[in-house]
Specification:
The chain has 264 residues and is mainly β. It contains one helix and 21 strands. The chain is elongated and about 80 Å long.
Length: 264
């Protein structure tokens, strides 16, 4: 009798430890548009992870789109956005529809890349037939907002957006940009975005010192104090009650505060 061979069992166990089911995420249903009469219903199956490269993961989902409208949709495209548990957008893709009749349902697979685990999603129309144009989201442009000096707190239409420089998305119309920074007067800057404006522009606002002159150095340092004298080679400025001598070649610009000499 031949002894039992044990190595096939070891191979089977090894294969079981290597092969595991793909990671899946719950499916979701989204009705578009979010308000008003519904036009389309997007149903997404479980997002199955099918691969990864570095920090990017690839997912596939079975997608079903139903035309809830009373008219055919000749063509439409939508952006698909994935979010993690903190509502941070981690991936995006697109969906294209063509010739979908009233009450008709189309099914297809959608592949999308993300930098994490998707928890929720949303769809946004990017192109629609003429009869659905009123349901397009408001146009927005991206613009860089800066200040002199940098590091001012930026508020857009009453909502804090972070420190400058900062890229913000603005819709068509009038907006109010507000800037605040310790040692400087708060300022407001009205900005209007036109329908023909495009992304990529920038605006800059210069803050005025609240009580002192501002000396901006070429290395980015900003001093707030009282300018005492300027010579051919040096500038003397009092900061915090202590006079400092600065080489004139180190200075980029000087902003002077208007003072009432009669009260000095």
């Amino acid at each position: 009798m031949c002894p039992a061979k044990r190595f096939p069992i070891a191979i089977v166990l090894l294969m079981c430890s290597v092969i595991s089911p793909a990671k899946e995420h719950p499916g979701q249903t989204v009705v578009w548009p979010e308000s008003g009469a519904p036009v389309l219903r997007f149903s997404f199956g479980k997002f199955r992870e099918i691969g990864s490269i570095g920090g990017q993961r690839s997912y596939m989902t079975d997608t079903t789109v139903e035309n809830l409208w009373s008219k055919p949709i000749s063509s439409a495209t939508f952006s698909l956005y994935l979010f993690d548990k903190n509502r941070v957008r981690i991936g995006d893709g697109w969906i294209s529809l063509n010739h979908v009749g009233p009450g008709e349902t189309v099914k297809f697979s959608t592949t999308i890349a993300a930098s994490g685990d998707p928890v929720s999603l949303s769809v946004m129309a990017t192109s629609l037939p003429r009869e659905l144009q009123p349901k397009m989201p408001p146009k927005k442009i991206s613009i860089t907002v800066n200040s002199v000096p940098q590091g001012a707190l930026l508020t857009v239409d009453g909502i804090q957006s972070g420190d400058t420089p900062r890229m913000v998305d603005l819709s068509i119309g009038k907006h109010m940009l507000e800037f605040s920074k310790d040692g400087f007067n708060a300022g407001k800057f009205p900005l209007e975005v036109g329908p023909d404006d495009v992304s990529g522009g920038s605006v800059s606002y210069e803050l005025g010192s609240s009580a002192h002159d501002t000396i901006e150095l070429r290395d980015g340092t900003v001093l707030s104090g009282d300018l005492e004298s300027i010579s051919g080679m040096n500038v003397v400025v009092k900061v915090g009650g202590v006079s400092q001598q600065i080489n004139r070649n180190q200075i980029k610009r000087i902003l002077l505060v208007v003072r009432d000499t009669a009260n000095q």
